[in-house]
């Protein structure tokens, strides 16, 4: 008899995947972690029964989190990723030759450990000499940093458990302080079908903190609704004013130079979330 995993994305809706086997499951100090082998999506990382990443579609999220801000900034040298213990965003960050150091601040060391073991195509870049892996609280890491980073990426889970503080105005203000005078923030901000209020809140908080604030989207089929948003806050550089010569050829499966601008063209109902009805 087949085994299926269902993520209940709302009280009335979920997605289901056929499971071949469970590779590992444990309760860490912060959350329940499980690594599944699925028929459709390959290996799948779950945290508290929520899909974090899969081998088949992981490239979308990781590329869009990393390349949009890194091509917006003219010379990103020092990058911080808060969360993201699977290593996918770090892998994409390292494709930019200007990056001299990429710091990972992941609160749950077990996510790093089992991603390295079961998701080497995603986590392999964590061994790169330019990467500083810190098992630490990203909120506190930000609080202790001042004018240190060119780009900060918040690769968090949904705002539950240890990630709650990563969706507060105080956190974004701390990020602004941790960024250099021309720094850029990008954070994953969930989906507009089920979490419009969250997107509205984050957009408002970031807009009050950064001179330039923009929302962009990507299609990630294993995330709730499939339509995902990212919110960018920038001190100087507008992602819609990137000169052509700044775009360099890198190995991607989703992100392109043309998509860089196109992803900011929001469906009307998503635009209404940030601009009001």
UniProtKB/TrEMBL annotation:
Q: In which pathway does it act?
A: Amine and polyamine biosynthesis; spermidine biosynthesis; spermidine from putrescine: step 1/1
Sequence positions that bind spermidine: 62, 86, 155-158
Which key words are in the record? Polyamine biosynthesis, Spermidine biosynthesis, Transferase
| Enzyme Commission number(s) of this protein | 2.5.1.16
Question: Which positions does UniProt annotate for S-methyl-5'-thioadenosine binding?
Answer: 31, 106, 137-138, 162
Kindly list the GO molecular function terms attached to this UniProt entry: spermidine synthase activity
Q: Does the keyword Transferase apply?
A: yes
Give all residue intervals belonging to the PABS domain. 2-235
Show the InterPro entries listed in the entry.
Answer: PABS, PABS_CS, SAM-dependent_MTases_sf, Spermi_synthase, Spermidine_synt_N, Spermidine_synt_N_sf
Positions of the catalytic residues = 155 (proton acceptor)
The catalytic activity, as recorded, is: S-adenosyl 3-(methylsulfanyl)propylamine + putrescine = S-methyl-5'-thioadenosine + spermidine + H(+)
PROSITE patterns assigned to the protein according to its UniProt record, in alphabetical order: PABS_1 (PS01330), PABS_2 (PS51006)
- Which domain of life does the UniProt lineage start with? Bacteria
- PANTHER family for the chain: SPERMIDINE SYNTHASE, SPERMIDINE/SPERMINE SYNTHASE
What does the record give as the function of this protein?
Answer: Catalyzes the irreversible transfer of a propylamine group from the amino donor S-adenosylmethioninamine (decarboxy-AdoMet) to putrescine (1,4-diaminobutane) to yield spermidine.
Q: How does it assemble?
A: Homodimer or homotetramer.
| Protein family (similarity comment) | Belongs to the spermidine/spermine synthase family.
What is the protein's given name? Polyamine aminopropyltransferase
């Amino acid at each position: 008899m087949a085994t299926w995993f269902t993520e209940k994305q709302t009280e009335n809706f979920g997605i289901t995947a056929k499971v071949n086997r469970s590779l590992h499951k444990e309760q860490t100090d912060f959350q329940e972690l499980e690594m599944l082998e699925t028929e459709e999506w390959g290996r799948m990382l779950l945290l508290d029964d929520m899909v974090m990443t899969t081998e088949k579609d992981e490239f979308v999220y990781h590329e869009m989190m990393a390349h949009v801000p890194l091509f917006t900034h003219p010379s990103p040298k020092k990058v911080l990723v808060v969360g993201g213990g699977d290593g996918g965003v770090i892998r994409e960050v390292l494709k930019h030759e200007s990056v001299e150091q990429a710091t990972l601040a992941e609160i749950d060391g077990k996510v790093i450990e089992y991603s390295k073991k079961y998701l080497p195509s995603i986590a392999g870049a964590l061994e790169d000499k330019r990467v500083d892996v810190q098992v630490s609280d990203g909120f506190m890491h930000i609080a202790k940093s001042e004018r240190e980073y060119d780009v900060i990426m918040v690769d968090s889970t949904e705002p539950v458990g240890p990630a709650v503080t990563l969706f507060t105005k105080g956190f974004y203000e701390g990020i602004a302080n941790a960024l250099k005078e021309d720094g850029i923030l990008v954070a994953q901000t969930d989906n507009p079908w089920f979490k419009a209020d969250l997107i509205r809140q984050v957009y408002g908080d970031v807009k009050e903190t950064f001179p330039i604030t923009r929302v962009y989207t990507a299609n990630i089929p294993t995330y709730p609704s499939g339509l995902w948003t990212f919110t960018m806050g920038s001190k100087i550089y507008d992602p819609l004013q990137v000169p052509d010569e700044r775009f360099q050829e890198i190995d991607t499966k989703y992100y392109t130079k043309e998509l860089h601008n196109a992803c900011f063209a929001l469906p009307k109902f998503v635009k209404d979330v940030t601009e009001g009805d």
